Amino acid sequence: MNKLEFFECEQETIRKLDFQGHALDSPEIWLQFQRRNSFGLAPETKIHRIFQKEFFEFDQANNYLTFPLAAATIWNDPLENPLSEIRDIDSLTGVPIHLGSLVDSFFALCWSNRSTPTESDWASFSHEKDAVRISTTVGKLMSRLMRSEDPDYMHRFWLIEVEYRDPDLIRAMQNPKEVYGRMEPNGALLAVSVALVRSDYSGEDEVRLLFDGKISPLPNGTIVLPGGNLVRIPFDWTDIIENIEFRPWLSG
Q1: Which of 22, 39, 55, 231 could form a disulfide with 3, with the two C-beta atoms 3.0–4.6 Å apart?
Q2: Is 95 a domain residue?
Q3: Confidence of residue 190 (pLDDT cuts 50, 70, 90)
Q4: Residue 198 has pLDDT above 60, yes or no
Q5: How far apart are the C-alpha atoms of 84 and 225, rounded to whole Å?
Q6: Is 171 domain-assigned?
Q7: 109 lies in which domain range?
Q8: In terms of DSSP bridges, do strands 230-234 and 223-224 run parallel, antiparallel, or are they unpaired?
Q9: Could you tell me which of 105, 53, 127 has the C-alpha nearest to residue 216?
Q10: Would strands 157-161 and 96-97 be described as parallel, antiparallel, or unpaired?
Q11: pLDDT tens digits for 142-182?
């Protein structure tokens, strides 16, 4: 099955649990939403992320996980979050419509399901700073973020294996018809669009963690930094790290 077929399969299980009388904050549905929003990534799948050491230590000490906005200007890639700037004109009123607003409030963190980092990984994600690489699992990460006491937990967080496409194919989908075709009640097709990345970066084997910042109110304790380009999500780091590797930056 592809990722969307996995999503629909898990969604059908949620419907059955709901019919049986399980509440949204019940352990059964809570776990099922985690599986649904992971698009076929099994809970035991190991994933890894390289952080700049100073930012990782700040987050860990203050119980946050900090996300940057998934925007072309932030990620220095004009094809990042490719539908975020799409606009149309309302055929009845003639009023401009910013269709990209459906996805332009997504924040994202790059993880990888590749067990061994390359030198290119360290160089790309350390940004010439001391760095750490941590390992955890899909299930641990999603259970810490999708908190059952949050009534909107099923809509906020997504973990998606990136699909790499030729840049010309991504440009070809930057049109209103593409956005209209992705409008559906669960938001899955729009979330998946934020995990479309140019094939130039296919060597990263990325798994993209998304936070949808447009859903209000934000989770208790969330901090949006001035400028709106970073958001800090409350995060319990206890026992989540299975392995950690330190790499100092060696100039030259």
Answers
A1: 39
A2: yes
A3: very high
A4: yes
A5: 20
A6: yes
A7: 44-247
A8: antiparallel
A9: 105
A10: unpaired
A11: 999 999 999 999 999 999 999 999 999 999 999 999 999 99
The identity of residue 78, as a single letter, is P
CA atoms within 13 A on the CB side of 184: 13
DSSP, res 69:
B
Number of domains in the chain: 1
Coil/strand/helix, residue 44:
coil
In contact, 104 and 81? CB cutoff 8 Å: yes
Cβ partners under 8 Å of residue 131, min gap 6: 50, 51, 52, 53, 122, 125, 246, 247, 249
Question: Are 46 and 115 contacting, i.e. CB atoms less than 8 angstroms apart?
Answer: yes
The amino acid at residue 202 is S
User: What is the sign, positive or negative, of the torsion defined by CA atoms of 166, 72, 67, 11?
Assistant: negative
Nearest of 134, 111, 121, 123 to residue 208 by alpha carbon: 111
- 25 in a domain, yes or no? no
CA geometry: angle 202, 203, 207, nearest 5 deg? 70
Full-prediction pTM beyond 0.90? yes
Does residue 33 fall inside a structural domain?
Answer: no
Contact by Cβ (8 Å): 159, 209: yes
Residue 207 near residue 47, CB atoms below 8 Å: yes
CA distance 35 to 143: 10
CA dist., res. 212 & res. 192, Å (int): 12
Nearest Cα neighbor of 138 from 37, 42, 6, 236 is 42
Q: How many CA atoms lie within 13 A of 85 on its CB side?
A: 11
Name the one residue in this structure whose structure tokens are 């299930």. 139
